[in-house]
């Protein structure tokens, strides 16, 4: 069913559970794992010109660390890639290029009225992806006061 899983990662806390769930999915289906991190070109372009090279280097270092984390957590080989551009566009394009079966990504959990909203990158991926998208919400710490425990996983499949 799933031969190729793309794990979109930025190394943030909100993606850690997504990495674990994506790797579990890949293990269950004996699928190839591709980890992708995207350096957001708009962040670089929006910075003062004298800081752009330094910011790009910092973002690339963060991307490398995020990919290394996926490799460390995996019990299989992981193909890694870093791209620069608009994250949602680059993730979807990468999935097309490698003929992926699913993209896994984290999403920022929200409280109150906006609880069901995804992070902006995750939302764009879900809306534009050529393949199913597994979004994984980070669990709230115990005792957060909302009375709910449990995973929320959304998919466009």
TrEMBL record:
Residue ranges of domain UspA in the record: 1-137
Family to which the UniProt record says this protein belongs: Belongs to the universal stress protein A family.
Protein name: UspA domain-containing protein
């Amino acid at each position: 069913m799933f031969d190729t899983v793309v794990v979109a990662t930025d190394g943030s806390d909100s993606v850690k559970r997504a990495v674990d769930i994506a790797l579990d999915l890949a293990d269950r289906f004996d699928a190839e794992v591709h980890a992708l991190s995207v350096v957001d070109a708009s962040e670089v372009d929006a910075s003062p010109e004298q800081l752009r090279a330094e910011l790009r280097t910092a973002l690339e270092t963060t991307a490398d660390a995020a990919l290394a984390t996926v490799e460390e957590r995996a019990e299989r080989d992981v193909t890694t890639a870093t791209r620069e551009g608009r994250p949602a566009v680059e993730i979807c394009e990468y999935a097309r290029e490698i003929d992926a079966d699913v993209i896994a990504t984290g999403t920022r959990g929200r409280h109150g009225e906006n609880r069901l909203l995804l992070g902006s990158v995750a939302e764009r991926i879900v809306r534009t992806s050529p393949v199913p998208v597994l979004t994984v919400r980070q669990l709230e710490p115990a005792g957060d006061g909302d009375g709910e425990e449990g995973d929320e996983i959304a998919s466009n499949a």
